[in-house]
Specification:
Blueprint lengths: L17 H12 L29 H18 L12 E10 L4 E13 L5 E8 L4 E23 L2 E29 L2 E24 L7 H11 L1 H28 L4 H4 L5
Antiparallel strand pairs: 1-2, 2-4, 3-4, 4-5, 5-6
Helix pairs in contact: 1-4
Length: about 270
């Protein structure tokens, strides 16, 4: 899988509400983990875990199967890990900020409901478990999202303020998540913790509509809808770095809430 370039394009037109869209793309790919207290026993392997061995010559294929095996359980949620169902995926709030270049804005997304995230497929895996490195290539055929947005900032020195409701649809989304982990020891039990998470994405088609509560009853709201759809590819490309950074930060926390409950020996059988 080829990771999209993050080269800036400052000479392209930018719409602040597209930050909302760029942020949503990767949150839809990510599985949504909530904090939990329970820690699984090292002596049992739950049915939702497909375990692997580092010594397996087909280890990457095994890890791929582990994530694909997990999918139907995520749809309904995993009670003992307090992981809620991901269909639909519900995200109460997420914040994103871009403070560089001609576009300097702060965006808050809230009350988000995302359909289609459970239909993910892990396409390929590259890993080095001696260094706790895992790269995952994923594909989602269709994502649809609704929620509220609040954007405040400046574009080309002009103040922009927009708040209201949004609807977004994305087709054929591909992404690569690069996980950098470390081993941690809790009361003699070893776990993997995510130290850093890098994310890249691309998509084939997108649609985006807003209902602007500030600029209502004038032509601004409709003009923004037209602009978003006609310039979606260019705008999303420009906003990728800021969107990926924000989503990576959130997804890192989500992963750790799960990883730090599952001992290494449960899913990596020949770990010491």
């Amino acid at each position: 899988m080829v990771i999209p370039s993050y080269t800036a394009a400052a000479d392209r037109p930018v719409s602040l509400t597209l930050i909302v869209r760029a942020s949503l793309l990767i949150t839809a790919i990510a599985t949504f983990f909530q904090p939990a207290e329970a820690v699984l026993s090292v002596n049992a392997t739950p049915e939702y875990i497909h375990s692997c061995r580092k010594a397996d010559v087909q280890f990457n294929s095994c890890i791929k199967e582990t994530f694909n095996h997990l999918r139907p359980y995520l749809i309904n949620g995993i009670e003992e890990l307090t992981v809620p169902p991901i269909e639909p995926l519900v995200i109460p709030k997420m914040q994103m900020e871009n403070g560089h270049g001609a576009v300097r804005v702060r965006a808050i997304l809230s009350n988000m409901t995302i359909h289609g995230a459970s239909n993910y497929t892990v396409l390929n895996v590259r890993s080095d478990m001696n260094k706790y490195r895992i790269d995952l290539g994923l594909f989602i055929p269709h994502i649809e999202a609704t929620g509220n947005y609040d954007v405040n900032g400046n574009v080309l020195l002009l103040p922009v303020r927009s708040r209201g409701e949004f609807w977004a649809s994305f087709e054929n989304v591909t992404a690569l998540a690069k996980l950098y982990g470390v081993e941690v020891n809790k009361e003699g039990v070893k776990f993997m913790k995510t130290e850093r998470l890098g994310i890249g994405f691309k998509l084939e088609k997108s649609d985006f509509k807003i209902k602007d509560a500030i600029n209502m009853q004038n032509v601004i709201g409709e003009a923004m809808n037209v602009f978003l759809n006609e310039n979606s590819a260019e705008i999303i490309e420009e906003m990728k770095p800021a969107a990926s950074q924000a989503i990576g930060k959130h997804f890192k926390n989500f992963l750790n809430n799960a990883f730090l409950q599952i001992p290494l020996k449960v899913w990596l059988k020949d770990s010491e």
